[in-house]
């Protein structure tokens, strides 16, 4: 079928709603049922139980979308815009995928891709369904919601027979064929309902809409906009709002605001600002329309705002221009609201859309700006379920009638938005949230935090235990795969948190903090239970290097039954962590606790022993040698004059001398990684230092350091000297070339170019933090094979370089993180022992608990509560079902299968691409999940693996699985179709028959 949506008949919609609700207590996959109370407000002479709903867009294009919105708390529905160009003609103009909502939102879609008659039919079917649901499910009053039509884009189009008929029918639908059909079906099938009666059916109003929002294209002249509003007010006698664009603020304001909030990469020119409605034209026009509507006894207002056009510069979407929305649009939209509120002294009615979400909606509505419609927040995990939290919050605050806009309140909100963490762009570009694997056809739920962790730590398991206060059990789970809970709980690079699904809600679960909470609370109890393992292996292993990699190798080897000795040239275990990383990052006591865990395994530790020969150790009776030496050589930074201090040497001296190092007043640190951040913070703490400068050839946004490290550096008053490339140092100054950012690549990283200008930075001491290197001499001396880059060549699975000699950590692939070193230790130990050294833990999780957290935005800083924020994705993921506006990805419960299975419904999908963004795999569910087709023609138009039901009674299907379709009976075993897929198809036919057209 491709990207063509097919509308379901009313009978199928109602059967779907009723059967799913009865079987699963959900409606179109939404779990958060919102039940309205007695409190309500009023607009356009009609009641409204909540002042929120979906904006004209993907969430109001089909009947099921509106139904899902209503079930979760929406009560004001801005229906997707209709215009004279529609159906296949318009669809051909919309490039797919057309939505990208990973952070701020972007889209390149316009009005409905359905024909106008089909769109109208969808809205009427939804109108009937909502009336039924209100009473049958006890969700609220049958008159507690409103539909608002959105029409565009010029007066000629709106006056056309097609759009004119649409407006008239939506205002008075009694004679429409769909209206008649829906009413007839309800009356004929009234026995299917427990509470809904024939009298209720007869009472469904035919006057669906009495309000309209005018949506015009960019560049529409003011007289055209006013003519449309005049026509709707005087000829159609309908309450009218005009949708405004952020361009009314002016280019300079928009550019300055975006730059200051971190959206400097967002490219837009001044064309639309000059071509769109001008503020000086808008004010008198709105004044005239307010007067006209008052004379006619109607309401007039503005809808703020339309999406904001920006350039496609990084292949974000397959278009030249796209429309920005969400968190970045909010500061512009609310600023325009504040400007107009002040201009009209709060008298101009303002409806709102433009980055509204749970965090700001109370202040928007509280300022008198409503109804509020949303889109981008609903496109993120949790999807429609997010509406329930917003609705409950607003009703709890209290619904008030419109008496004018609080100018002071909205002005303050606009000012606060510019510094609000929920709207300011993070200090660094977003990391890739996806894992490298492709989504499987079956059993796809997994915890991306665990998949992203190099050691696949059982995060969801210990999170669940920690949230229940079972810290002892949590630490035991951690120690199964990670013998360094204090080190990793303090300084781990936490790739797990980069992959955490809660990033799409508000911020990741602070997994590292929870680990560090469990470790001290359970340490004594767990240490008491730890016993020295029996030496069942009968062999001896030597580990050269007592850093994190060596410590981990010793732990796994000893736990596996080997007799292990660690040789460390320094006077303590811990490597760089113990001897270089400053105490303000990690304490000596924390490192010693991890070292004690290693010793508790019966590992012998010889300190002050520098070993350089594997043969020597083997001659002493060791069966295997594990090289775990760190990257101890400094990176190279050549200046034309002067010699910088190596960062690692400085940090080592700083730690050894407790900060009593002579640096002078002005210190320059060159580099942008975590080591550079440690160096700068240490220099700032050094006696006599007045200024510390961080010099980097790009901006801090492109520094490789972790975001939290950059933030700490900023908070400590260290000065960033961006876009400088060092040349030479002399006379207390560092001479640098000034650089500028160039074009961005597809990953979002900007190139850098010279400007031809120079700049100096005061510098009594220059410290280079430009990376570390591995000393290959040790490996060459031991006869280990090296590649052309000087890296040890070892078996990728066993990490064995030559017989009985293994290389792990920095020595294997260059400077590694602590957890990467632990990963290597696991691999090498397992290879030597010939058995697994870690457990494959079962992933448990209560579905009800998982679903209860979906759609709930919740930031907690206390570790005791933090673990409770975990969504337990390994038990229930369903991101693709959450984020699909059309509900085209269904979580099917299959008898005999542990987890729900995702089935993609082809005829409901228009390939917007939103599920691809949020699937944790490097895949697109709308293309890669097992697909249900409406018929054989649709199957032929698609390349997806999937099936079409040919005969429900016989359970005869046509299946395509990586090749030509085959026709089978599900009860027959067929080697071409796995049993699991047959079970899925059987479940669809037997338990989810409403999915089949």
Please give a structural write-up.
By secondary structure, the protein is an alpha/beta fold. It is about 35% helix and about 15% strand. It is built from 39 helices and 36 strands. Strands 4-7-8-9-10-13 form a 6-stranded parallel beta sheet. Strands 17-16-15-18-30-29 form a 6-stranded mixed beta sheet. A 6-stranded mixed beta sheet has the order 31-32-33-34-35-36. Strand 31 (about 890) and strand 32 (about 900-905) form a beta hairpin. Helix 18 packs antiparallel against helix 19 (about 470-480). The model has no long low-confidence stretch (mean pLDDT about 95).
**Unreliable spans:** none
Q: Average pLDDT value? A: 95
Beta percentage is: 15-25%
Rg measurement, Å: 32 Å
Termini separation: 14 Å
Query: Major sheet: order of its strands?
Result: 4-7-8-9-10-13
Shape: globular
Largest sheet: 6 strands, parallel
Q: From the structure provided, what is the oligomeric state, counting identical versus distinct chains?
A: single chain
Percent helix, as a range, is: 25-40%
């Amino acid at each position: 079928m491709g990207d063509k949506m097919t509308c379901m008949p009313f009978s199928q919609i109602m059967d779907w709603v009723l059967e799913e609700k009865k079987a699963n207590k959900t409606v179109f996959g939404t779990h958060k049922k919102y039940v309205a109370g007695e409190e309500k407000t009023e607009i356009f002479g009609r009641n409204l139980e909540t002042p929120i709903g979906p904006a004209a867009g993907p969430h109001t294009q089909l009947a099921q979308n509106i139904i899902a919105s209503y079930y979760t708390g929406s009560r004001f529905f801005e229906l997707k815009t209709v215009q004279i160009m529609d159906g296949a003609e318009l669809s051909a103009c919309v490039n797919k995928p057309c939505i990208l909502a990973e952070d701020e939102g972007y889209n390149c879609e316009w009005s409905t891709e359905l024909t106008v008659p089909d769109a109208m039919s969808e809205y009427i079917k939804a109108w009937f369904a909502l009336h039924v649901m209100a009473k049958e499910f006890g969700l609220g009053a049958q008159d507690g919601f409103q539909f608002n039509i959105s029409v565009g884009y010029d007066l000629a189009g709106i006056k056309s027979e097609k759009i004119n008929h649409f407006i008239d029918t939506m205002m008075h639908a009694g004679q429409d064929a769909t209206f008649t059909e829906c009413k007839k079906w309800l009356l004929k099938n009234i026995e299917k309902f427990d509470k809904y009666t024939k009298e209720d059916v007869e009472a469904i109003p035919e006057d669906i809409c009495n309000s309209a929002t005018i949506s015009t294209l960019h560049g529409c002249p003011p007289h055209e906009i006013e003519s449309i509003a005049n026509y709707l007010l005087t000829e159609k006698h309908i309450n009218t709002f005009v949708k405004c664009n952020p361009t009314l603020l002016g280019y300079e304001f928009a550019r300055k605001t975006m730059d200051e909030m971190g959206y400097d990469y967002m490219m837009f020119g001044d064309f639309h600002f000059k071509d769109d409605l001008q503020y000086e034209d808008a004010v008198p026009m709105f004044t005239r329309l307010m007067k006209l509507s008052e004379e006619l006894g109607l309401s007039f207002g503005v809808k703020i705002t339309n999406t904001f056009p920006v350039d496609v510069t990084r292949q974000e979407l397959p278009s030249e221009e796209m429309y920005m929305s969400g968190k970045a649009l909010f500061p512009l939209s609310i600023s325009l609201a504040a400007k107009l509120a002040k201009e009209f002294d709060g008298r101009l009615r303002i409806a709102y859309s433009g980055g509204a979400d749970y965090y700001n909606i109370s202040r928007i509505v509280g300022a008198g700006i409503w109804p509020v419609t949303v889109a981008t927040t609903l496109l993120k995990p949790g999807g429609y379920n997010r509406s329930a939290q917003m609705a409950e919050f607003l009703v709890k605050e209290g619904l008030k009638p419109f008496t004018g806009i609080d100018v002071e309140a909205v002005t303050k909100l606009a000012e606060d938005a510019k510094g609000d963490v929920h709207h300011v762009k993070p200090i660094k570009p977003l990391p890739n949230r996806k894992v490298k694997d492709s989504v499987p056809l079956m059993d796809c739920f997994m915890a991306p935090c665990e998949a992203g962790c190099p050691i696949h730590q059982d995060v969801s398991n210990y999170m669940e235990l920690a949230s229940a206060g079972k810290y002892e059990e949590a630490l035991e789970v951690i120690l199964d795969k990670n013998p360094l809970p204090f080190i990793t709980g303090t300084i781990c690079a936490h790739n797990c948190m980069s992959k955490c699904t809660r990033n799409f809600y508000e911020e990741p679960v602070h997994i590292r903090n929870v680990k560090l909470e469990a470790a001290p609370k359970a340490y004594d109890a767990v240490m008491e239970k730890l016993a020295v393992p029996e030496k069942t292996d009968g062999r001896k292993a030597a580990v050269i290097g007592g850093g994190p990699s060596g410590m981990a190798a010793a732990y796994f080897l000893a736990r596996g039954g080997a007799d292990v000795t660690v040789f460390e040239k320094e006077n303590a275990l811990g490597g760089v962590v113990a001897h270089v990383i400053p105490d303000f990052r990690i304490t000596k006591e924390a490192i010693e606790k991890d070292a004690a865990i290693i010793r508790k395994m019966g590992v012998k530790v010889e300190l002050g022993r520098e070993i350089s020969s594997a043969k020597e150790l083997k001659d002493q009776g060791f069966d295997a040698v594990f090289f775990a030496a760190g990257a101890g050589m400094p990176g190279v930074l050549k200046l034309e004059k002067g010699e910088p201090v190596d960062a690692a040497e400085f940090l080592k001296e700083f730690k050894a001398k407790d900060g009593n190092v002579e640096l002078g007043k002005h210190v320059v640190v060159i580099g942008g990684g975590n080591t550079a951040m440690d160096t700068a913070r240490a220099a700032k703490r050094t006696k006599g230092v007045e200024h510390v400068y961080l010099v980097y050839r790009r901006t801090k946004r492109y520094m490789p350091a972790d975001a939290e490290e950059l933030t700490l550096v900023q908070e400590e008053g260290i000065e960033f000297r961006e876009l400088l490339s060092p040349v030479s140092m002399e006379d207390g100054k560092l001479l640098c070339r000034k650089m500028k950012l160039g074009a961005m690549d597809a990953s979002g990283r900007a190139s850098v170019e010279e400007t031809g200008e120079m700049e100096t930075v005061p510098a009594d001491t220059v410290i280079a933090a430009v990376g570390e290197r591995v000393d290959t001499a040790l490996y060459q001396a031991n006869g280990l094979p090296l590649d052309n880059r000087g890296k040890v060549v070892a078996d990728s699975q066993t990490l064995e370089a030559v017989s009985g000699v293994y290389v792990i950590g920095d020595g294997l692939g260059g400077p590694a993180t602590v957890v990467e070193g632990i990963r290597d230790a696991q691999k090498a130990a397992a290879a030597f022992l010939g058995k697994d050294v870690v457990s494959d833990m079962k992933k448990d999780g209560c579905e009800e608990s998982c679903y209860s957290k979906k759609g709930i935005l919740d930031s907690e800083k206390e570790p005791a509560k933090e673990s409770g924020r975990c969504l337990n994705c390994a038990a229930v993921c369903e991101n693709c079902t959450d984020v699909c506006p059309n509900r085209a990805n269904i979580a099917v419960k299959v008898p005999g299968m542990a987890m729900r299975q995702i089935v993609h419904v082809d005829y409901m999908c228009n390939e917007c691409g939103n599920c691809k963004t949020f699937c944790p795999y490097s895949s697109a569910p709308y293309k890669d999940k097992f697909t249900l087709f409406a018929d054989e023609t649709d199957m032929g138009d698609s390349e997806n693996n999937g099936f079409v039901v040919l005969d429900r009674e016989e359970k005869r299907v046509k299946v395509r699985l990586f090749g030509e379709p085959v026709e089978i009976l599900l009860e027959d075993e067929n080697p071409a179709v796995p049993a699991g897929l047959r079970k899925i198809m059987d479940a669809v036919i037997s338990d989810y028959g409403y999915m089949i057209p």
